[in-house]
Amino acid sequence: MKQRVEIVTRILDSNDQLAEQNRKKLDAHQVFAINVMASPGAGKTSFIVQTIAKLPEGLRLGVIEGDTAPVTIDSDKIIEAGMPAIQINTGGNCHLDANMVGLAINQLNLDDIDLLLIENVGNLICPAGFALGNHANIVIASIPEGDDKPYKYPNIYRNIDVLIINKIDLLPYIDFRMDYFREGVEMLNPGLKTFEVNSKTGEGFDGWIEWLKERVSTTQK
To answer: How far is CA 141 from CA 65, 78, 115, 209, in A?
Structure first.
């Protein structure tokens, strides 16, 4: 057991060192990067596509897409929306790590990007434990997932900067107790910035876009 702990520690230490290198590279090019985490089906890609549609003119976006299989469905959607995207195949791993993200960053022209969205693998456990070098972490929760996720998967909610509650148009049709959900989140991350949105219609995106603009502007000062 002790040997396993030592091996895991070495892996995480190595990952943290690579994450620091990624952060320095992003900072050198004044790129604000966000790690986007969620469970499968929460609407990560549709959220990113709607974000692209709402971005103010002149704010340049790049996307890194993480998937467990060598498919380009999500990255193709981003490219169709007019933004550069790099696909990462994790080879079945349940999360991105700093090495994968670093290799993807090297394929992007960072001088042409203000904002980098890193779409992590759909999972509420593994991504929480691996630093990537980004500046902010967000979780997208969706109404169909149920209101118990903060209680079942607390770690992923503890160290995030923004919570997106997606698919709010389904609230009338699904037994989702918003108060119960928010109470669970508040216990883990008091005062967490939260936006309730509908990624299909763009409802609720104004506040999110304003937050993005402010953070990108701060990075470029």
So the answer is: 18, 20, 22, 18
